[in-house]
Design brief:
The complex is a heterodimer of chains A (126) and B (232). By secondary structure, chain A is mostly helical. Chain A folds into two domains: 11-76, Orthogonal Bundle (Arc Repressor Mutant, subunit A); 79-125. Chain A has helices spanning 11-24, 37-44, 48-61, 78-102, 107-125; strands at residues 64-67, 71-74. In chain A, a hairpin with a 3-residue loop joins strand 1 and strand 2 (71-74). The mean pLDDT of chain A is 90. With 232 residues, chain B is an alpha/beta fold. Chain B is 34% helix and 26% strand. Chain B contains nine helices and nine strands.
Chain lengths: 126, 232
């Protein structure tokens, strides 16, 4: 999974989001050891200091923790990861609803369009 | 820890024209700094002053507390804007040449980078394309274990794919206590790896700020901000 950084927002904030995502989808599994700051920075082609800042914030939030001698690990607390997932879902939904409202749909119509397109997806998959 | 570089009221004038006018800033260790400005803003003049290729009209530069000279050259690795290497030399000869000059030069590192870029150490500089030539020079400069790297337009002549590789090379080969100053106007390609930027305009520093601070406060990239500030 690659790192995608947009040019109009702070890099460190985007790194935080992407590491959270990688934890949610299991690229970095619960309880696993994270690559070093340097390696992560290299992978994302960003400044190591910026990566360090992102990791420090994630640590503060509790999603990562540091073992003094052996490096940085992903939390083992599944509830915490679920909470992050829910938060991300809310963000996506809010984004979607905002866009739909901008297009002039009201709440009822949004629900109808969404459920009918989900149903279509279902029949396609069967 | 002391700053790796300090400028105190630095001025450089070429007859009546002031290329740098009373600039004042300091750069800590362990940072990657972008020195950005349009053509003629004083970027190269500044870098040449750091290397004692020019001397200040007034004011001073201190590198690790010393004026530029023999002692600072031991800890500064410099990539000039234009090549100064003999084009009849093979890459392997250049490596020996650098080894003789600089005690902090690591030939193993150089050969490793060459092989990853598929550059034959037995090739002569003059038989190489402009891009390959630039890569060789950057490899030589980054193979030193210096405290300060001064890179004047390191990515100007190479294609975008090689540009990415060069940025990776820069990230890979500097240690956390070293500082890298990169002068360029290809900002979009490089801003991801910078801690902060210094904007130069007509020989004066008009902005010194962190890349993420700029993005946060302006909602735009350093590249967009640059285009706005220096709009022609």
């Amino acid at each position: 999974m690659t790192w995608e950084l947009q040019s109009d927002r702070p890099i460190y904030a985007q790194l935080i989001e992407q590491i959270e995502l990688k934890i949610c989808i299991g690229v970095f599994p619960l309880g696993s050891k994270l690559p070093s700051v340097r390696d992560l920075a290299k992978e994302a082609s960003v400044n190591p200091n910026t990566m360090q800042k992102a990791l420090a914030k994630l640590e503060e939030d509790g999603l990562l923790y540091t073992n003094r001698t052996s490096g940085r690990y992903v939390t083992e607390d599944i509830q915490m990861v679920k909470a992050v997932k829910r938060k991300k879902a809310q963000d996506h939904i809010k984004n979607f609803v905002d866009k739909m409202t901008e297009l002039g749909f009201d709440d009822k119509e949004i629900v109808r369009i969404l459920s009918s397109s989900l149903q279509k997806e279902d029949t396609k998959n069967e | 820890m002391s700053n790796i570089l300090e400028c105190n009221d630095l001025t450089k004038a070429f007859s009546a024209k002031k290329a740098l006018n009373n600039i004042r800033f300091s750069i800590p260790r362990g940072k990657i700094v972008g020195l950005l400005g349009p053509n003629g803003s004083g970027k190269s003049t500044f870098i040449k002053l750091c290397n004692e290729l020019l001397t200040p009209t007034s004011g001073e530069i201190l590198i690790s507390g010393k004026n530029p000279g023999i002692e600072t050259k031991k800890i500064v690795s410099y990539l000039p804007e234009r090549t100064y290497l003999n084009d009849w030399m093979k890459v392997s000869q250049l490596i020996r040449f650098f080894q003789d000059f600089y005690s902090d030069f690591d030939p193993e590192k150089a050969y490793d980078m060459l092989s990853r870029l598929n550059i034959d150490p037995n090739d002569m500089l003059k038989t190489m394309s402009k891009g390959t030539n630039e890569k060789v020079q950057l490899i030589l400069v980054m193979s030193r274990n210096a405290e300060l790297y001064l890179l004047d337009e390191p990515i100007g002549g190479v294609d975008p794919a090689a540009r990415d590789y060069i940025l990776d090379t820069i990230l890979n080969n500097y240690n956390e206590n070293a500082t890298i100053i990169i002068s360029t106007h290809l900002i979009a390609d490089i801003e991801k790896i910078l801690d902060y930027v210094i904007f130069l305009k007509d020989g004066e520093v008009i902005l010194t700020k962190g890349v993420d601070e700029i993005r946060e406060e302006n909602g735009k990239s350093v590249d967009s901000l640059f285009r706005e500030v220096f709009k022609c």
